[in-house]
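Quick question about two entries, pasted in order.
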Amino acid sequence: STERWYRTVFQESALPSSDLERWANVGSVGTKGLTAVPGLNPFMPTDSELNISPDAEPKLAESGPESEEESSVALVVDNKDLRVHLVTPSLRFRAQPKMSVLVHALTPATYESPEASMLCRLFVRVVLAELNSYAYDATVAGMGYVVMTTSSGFLISMTGFESQVPTLLRTIVSRMQTVIEQIETGEGGGLLEQRFEQQRELLQQTMRNTEKDAPYKQASYWLNQVMEDKVWHVDEYSKVLDDDSVCNLRAVAAAAKRMMSDTTLEVLLTGGGAAMEGEAGPAKAAAIGNELRELLPNSSEGPSTTTTGKSGTVKLPTEPESNGLLLRRIVRDPTNENSAVQMHFQTSVEVGDGTSDDEQAGFTGENQRMSVTEHAALDVIARLAYPSIFKTLRTQQQLGYLVSGYAGRFDGIAGLTLVCQSSNTPPPEIQRRMDEWMVTFGDEIGAMSEEDISTNAKALAASIIQKSDSMLDQHQIYAGEIQQMRYDFNRRERRAPEVANVTKADVVAAWNKWYAPGVTTRKPLMLHFYSTKDAEVG
């Protein structure tokens, strides 16, 4: 038969009379144990009402969307192994009964060796696979979560309704502990072993696929390898994953147990709604932090004093010592016809929060921090560099379809990074064109008017201080400070006016000190990645 409206072909057939009879007498059929009502979703909010104070609307009407009553952060717990930072969102979002939490567990255990790094990463992946049974309920309830390892420890991040975020946080941490116990006791059976092998295979494939990354991505990877003074290489990771004697479920449990038993916790919490009003907010934040500390007890009297992954960066030689460092590599993927060049110019230590003792911290002599003005001028130079290098190498010279320039930073050391990927030009010629552009860009800066420089500086400052579109956006701003271990929560507010006041003289002075060809303080690093075709020609 054909359906009337959409002309869909279908077939009709009579239902068996036995089925019709059974359904008609369903009351007489024993169904106990065959059917069940789905359980309650534990993550559905118990309070989803907006909490609008009587004076909120007049305040917003008076100040408009650019309310001066912006978000703020306060330290509500300050112990040797636990700090809790509470963000009070801006007036625009304070009525929402939402909450976002970031837990940064600092520990050396996740990055002290390639073995530790891979085993801890595998553990987190197995835990996330175990949490899949909760993922659907959490998603339906409008919640989201992330668990991941870093070079400084591990992160747990989540967002959702204020009433249920603590439940989800408790569930994740408890599940992490349970997985370790099940591996140690063997209660997990073959399922955990199966999950482990699946995640191990996926990680092995990820490591193999790095050879197929675009050349500019490989150059960026090697830039990190050169600049960071404690970093492991993908080949070291692959060696661990391929070795059954090192990479096995028991080893994962041992690494995870150490990862979770020797930590310093930095907790960031952003929340709104009635439950976070007044003194209730700090009390709830402190309670969540203290519960986390109980769920993640330290095995010793305090956290380890071993480095937690904030390892510093390599100091590049200046041009009087060398003509710059040059790294050459051939892209391993023979099907990739692109070559790439990446240049990085290192400067000096960025301005801090203004509260630390620079002399005590070792920022003296050659390692002295740059001035506020110089730091801001370097950011303006990076903003000016991108459109200039793109126009010259991409639009005018058609050198490569991927051309960029941006501010590159390594552990608080400012710099300028330039990238060009090309399928028609080998790295030495790309390098020559980049060097020529450096000369012409210096001339462009010198020819710019004071007004042009000021316009760009003010536009950059406006982007730094741009208003958040949501409570989560505000949370992420402060979360960046936690993850990078700077804890400089007023950095944006302080930096914006510094950048806005940059003058042409400031920009020219910073350019001539750090980037201009031939200056004695210039510190260039060049990375040339050759396609198989260009390597054969070269």
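Here is the second entry:
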Amino acid sequence: MVLSNYQDSHGFSRQITPYEEEDWQRNKFEKENIKHGNVIAESGYSGSSEPLVDTLEKRHQTVTDLTKFYYKGDVIPPSTKSQILRALKFSVMYYYFMNATFFVYAFFIPATLPAPWYGGLDVREFYASPPHLVIMGVVLCIPLIRFLVMSWHVEFYQFVLILGGFEGSMLLFTALFWSHGLPVLVSLFVSNLINITVGQIYWKLHFEETVRALPTLVPPPASHVQDSTVLSVFSWKTLYEDFAKLWGFQRHRSPAMLYDERCGVFSTKDSMSHVQSMHCAYMQALDPFGRHAPWKRSPVDLWSLSWVGILDGLLNTFITNAAVCFAGLWLGKAMFEDFFHGGYAILCAVLIVCIFFVSLRRTTGLMEDALGVAVAEKEWLAHDVVHHTAQREEILFDAVDVMGTATSSKGRRVMPQDVMQKGRLNMVFMWLCVASTADFIGESYLAKLYWNLAHETRSMMEALTPYDFKLFPHAKWEVTFKSTLIKITQTLILTFTSCLYFGTYFRERPVPMPLVAFIGAACFIQSVVKLTEAIQFAFTILGAPHRTSVDDDVNNTTHRHMFVSEWIVLVALIFVFINILIWLYLLPIMKNWDLPVGKCKEPFNQVLFPSACLGKY
């Protein structure tokens, strides 16, 4: 391998390989020193995503080349080995596909079935004969029994086939013997919740299995040697080298050995290997109440990973699916049956569609950061594999995404927003992006694991490197504030839609009290959960003192404080609107009471809720 002399950003002369020279030339000004500073970027995702992807690809190619050169193999990150990031990517696609399916299917139901029940939800209307029930029992029990006896260690496609067969049969029998309207829609709801639950449990166990075997996935590398077998009898090109080796005048030295012979070099001062530290950190995240990692942490930082953690994700999924379905159903009713309140129906449908595309863009932006976790993991693990100490420090700088100085590689001063965009592509921030994405699509059980991984990764990096991840709550707010706002807005739309729909179209038939009660309770609980999520940042950001630099006094303000405070007020305002609709409108409509605000004698209430006010004025 041809080596070239190179003076790195620290002023030390060393020899590097050709594939390293280009990357080190590009980064020689950006990686001068590890800075203790704010590594959180500005709120939002501005600019093109291509530079971010290109950066991750170059980092991945660099660390892959290094590991293959020294290791004669490759290092597989645990997130890649367990495929949790790949599963998250397809879960996001599944989430948006199902929501679009719910909206379209609900939109066409009023075109084929009579109002207001659209097939009804009364189980007594299931008219299958005894022979049909026997056939249904056999068809449904076979995949159910196979699912119950199947191990969680089998390939994922087997779960897909079994659940697909069970849910497909359930949908078919529901459409044949009940109705293709609301009963099929409810069956799709149940199937979606089952799929989310099974997927979370499977991938969590798969990730845990990978983490337990992490030390064996990255064994210590062998010594870096080169074969010098003699094959030519007489060659001027190799004659001198063979003579020198024979007499012992020349001994092969690797770039790492040559570098270590220089006066000023990097040296490793870590107390434990990076493979061991990642194993401890990830095991601590998987077992929050155990004692696996030696570094300090707050006992309240980690989430418990009990199966109860699945419930809030299922609630999120139900609220989103119900809001989408109600918007589609109401729009279909206005288009195919009766345009009364059609303006409100169009408004709700437009809001739902806008939220759909806004959330899609936001989730895509987070996923671009989240998928870089594997790159940062590989850089961290490669630290134990690479022999060249300077190269180890270079890839470690990549793993923590060092911000460096406010000077670009071309020597010019960069804009403040450019500086703030640095520091995002470190393992901690990317795990936060993974957690936020999983939580948004309803995978709250996995999201809690990812939050734990972000906390433990931060503690690990701060314990083994000079790097400090400051303003951790600010980073968490940055990746979650939009999702909280989207979810509570969906809850408001669902509550508003339910009040108008059940207060308008049930003149001749009674309001379905169990359904209205379930929707109202779900909306109330969801509003409380989202308000709680918002209020926690009042303590962790607004009420927590911090130090912006080592020379500054402790203060309580940053550029985010105004945004956080206004965001909390907005979430609280939407919470108030939701509860006004639930307790002052939806509850009286369900109980057939007179409306408490203005009574039913008011023209405003008579126009908005004609069936609820029928006979009360």
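Reply: The first strand starts at residue 4 and ends at 7. Confidence is low (pLDDT under 50) at residues 1-48, 403-420, 547-554. Hope that helps.
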